[in-house]
Amino acid sequence: MLIAVTRLNIGGPAGQVLALAKGASPRWRALVAAGKPAPEEGELKDPAVPVLSVPLVRPVAPRSDLSAFLALRRLIKRSRARLVHTHMAKAGALGRLAGMSVGTAEERPRLVHTFHGHVLQGYFGATQQRAFLELERALAKRTDVLVAVSPEVRDELLGLGVGRPGQYAVVPLGLDLSRFAAVGTPAVPTGKLRAALGVGPGVPLAGAVGRLVPIKDHATLLRAVAAVPGLHVALLGDGELRASLQQLAASLGLAERAHFAGWWQDMPSALADLDVVVLSSRNEGTPAALIEALAASRPVVSTDVGGVRHVVEAGATGWLCPSGDPSALAAAIEQAVFSQRGKAAQMANEGRRRALARFSTEQMLAAYFSIYEQLLGRRAG
Q: For position 184, what pLDDT does the model report?
């Protein structure tokens, strides 16, 4: 089996791919092929999972894309892979095309593609979105199983005409949450993040975990923080918008309250120091950052987009609000940190219970192995 992913940048898809490859081998003789993430994105690694480098890049780049297609095709032929499982848009397109090009329709490897979200809304301009949508519709017709990480993502894709209902399986994100669960309930602050940022133990501190890229809409988060007096925010991540977001923070009077921490290695210790974890995205698949925050018993506030509702139930495990609305986001943060702290703690504890029960690696592996067995029988491949 060949597992192809565009890049193993820090985030839920990369964590899922590494966990899947580690759990699948040697039973399914899994090989992982991936491109290199940009330096500011960070890279997830697991010493138990060797990764074959292929020239997969996120932007449309005809020369690199052709090289990546040929490299994936060679890997499929050389390994005699009977199944190709792709993740993320670029690897999903080139990996499936490579699989389709090997042998006859009966001989070619079975094709599985996982949508960790999708890039068909909110990521690109109208012309590119239409082109990507038509490509996904065409690829879906020749894909054996389409996997969505939440019912919401599946329903969005079906609404866009990608695939048929019978092609889909819903497999929730599976994460090793033991390090986050060890933070305890209630979470015991470590002081490590606050010391690094120069934020005292009594200072209200929100946090956002993720890449500093347009789809995450940190600009709305900063505007919301500016509307909550005394609140500090830690941006735990990096990306192409760091400089412009720092400029925005300064223009909003947040130079002393917005802390750009970069990628934080010991994420459980960082979460333990936060009063609330905030997600301000315009679109999401299944947000690993919120799952990890709940596993660590942290209150969460999020925009109500994509598969977020698969993780956060409004009023039961966190706050949900419209995307692109700083006032609504500020009001929710104010409740979580100031006026409804008791309710926030109760919801965080319930969120912890649900996250640990719903998003385990074991459940994810069992679901994928069932799909593989249906496609290939019980023989490894």
A: 74
